[in-house]
Structures are given as C-alpha cells and as structure tokens.
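To whoever is on call:

I kicked off a structure prediction for a single chain this morning and the downstream step that reads the tokens threw a length-mismatch warning. I double-checked the sequence; it's 308 residues and nothing unusual in it as far as I can see. Pasting both halves so you can look.
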Amino acid sequence: MSELIAINIISAQMNISSRALRHWEDMGLFKSMRDPQSGWRMYDEEAVSCIRITDLLRRIDLSIEEIKKILVHKSVDELLNALKKQLKRLETITEDVDKRYTVISEIIEIIQNKQILSLAEIESILMPVAVKRTKKQLNNYIEEIHNMPIFDLKYEHEYTIVALPPMRTAACHHYGDEPENPDPALIWIKDNDLLGTARFFGFNTEALPTDEGPGFGYDFCVSIPENTVIPDYLYEKRLPGGLYAAFSNIGIGMGKLWDKINAGLKSGEFEWDFDDERICLEEHTGGVFGLVDSPLAITVLIPVKKKM
C-alpha cells in the first residue's frame, strides 16, 4: 500500500487550501481515507496525482466537469478536447478586449476637441462601448441618441431607458421553491474586498415551475474585474450589455411590477429584444441583503430595442 499523506501536508506543500481540497473531493475528482486516530483526510499516491492535475488545470480555468472527465477516463482525447475548448474561450475573451480597446480609442478621438460636455452628452458618448461599432457608426449613434426625447427620462413615469456595459460576473445556481440565495457569491465578494465596485443581478434559469411542482431555477451573479479568479463553487457568466428598460419595484409588489412592465412596453416606443445572451435581469441595489446600510430595491431590466 502506498504512503498516505494528510490533507494539511498536501495543503502546505502544494499551496492549495484545505477548503479547495475538500470541495474537489466532494465533486468526485478523487477519494481520501480517514486516519482512525486523528480523523484527518489522508491521500494515497493516485489521489495526490489527481490533486496535482486538478490544480494545474484549474490554474488555466478548466471547469470541474471537464477535469472530472479527464481524471475518470484518463484519456488524452478528453484532455485535448478540454484544452482546445479553453483555447477558444480565451480567443473570445481576447477578441472582446481588443474590440473594447478599439471602441474606447475611437470615443477618445471623437471627444478630444470638445472642452465642455453635458452629462447627457457624456452618457451618450459612453453608451456605444457596449456594442461593436465603427467610428462613423459611433457618430451617427450619438446623434440618434440626442434626438431621442425619452433618453434618460421616465417614459410616462413608467420606466427609464438605460445602457448596461458588458460585464464579467461570478454566478451561483440554485433550485427550489424559493431559490433566490445569493450567499455564495455575496460572501466571496465581501471576503475579497470587491463589494465597492460590484453590481448584483438575479435571473431565472431552468427548470421552470410545472404542474408537478413549484420549484424553479434562479441564478445570482456579481460583476467582477476581468482578471479576478473565480472560485470553484461559482461559475463565470458574461453579460453583453446594451439597451434595457428599467422598472423599479419601489412602492409596489413584484407581481404588480410585471403588470407595469407589460403595460409600459405595450404603449411605449421600445419593445422586447431577448436572445440567449440578453436576458431579463433583476438588479439588487441599496441594502443588498444586509451588506449595505440602506433599503433594498429591485430594478427589473428588460432588454429592448426601439420599435420600427
């Protein structure tokens, strides 16, 4: 029988937290044995190899699911497929950063000769950062925004049109009769001193309520800087940004709020504009679950476009 190594020794030697080791084991990446005297988790040679491989692959952001397939099948093909998928993901991120750099450079060129700008002009100029546009399109878009009388104003006192920038978020998934549980993401944000710049969003996910049961899926995500490493128990979600109609729940319940949303969009100048990436969001502001000392407010954000 190979020599067994205790979890605290592995943690110190490999600079991996005991919490991460326990989580990886709970996810089925390897197995430990218990020391009958101390109760410590002990790892044999095979488990130690799995820990080293997991640590390496997590450092290049492979998912737990991908790593598990590699360890279970011990397959070169599984490893190659996972690495190729990660390479494509990194290429997408690189392209996104390059596009932002280009658009920001073009915006700088547009405003360089202006000494004074109103708040409305600043917001209008910054808005296109969220989408792919050439310099000519940027100028046309800014002119179009200036001609929109309801921009930055409440439409019939029902909603406000806002522009969300693209955001990288850390998200957690829950399922149940009342699955709106932000704790995993919020605790991590607070522990890592990211609360000051974070925005908090919730959104419905599968599965949906049925006649067989009221349970449904709900995810909660928190905006984070581009270079922040996301822990294993959360997942990365990118919000593409763009135009949204913002409806506040202040003074009304969530049920009546959806009546307000349907009525506002039916009679207004904007219409729903959903796709797989631009989804309905609930932004939590103010006293976000006790982390900020002010009342909690929820703004429902509906992706929209101007009616033709």
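Update from on-call: the warning came from a stale cache, not from the record. Cleared it. Sanity check on the structure: Confidence is low (pLDDT under 50) at residues 128-139, 141-157.
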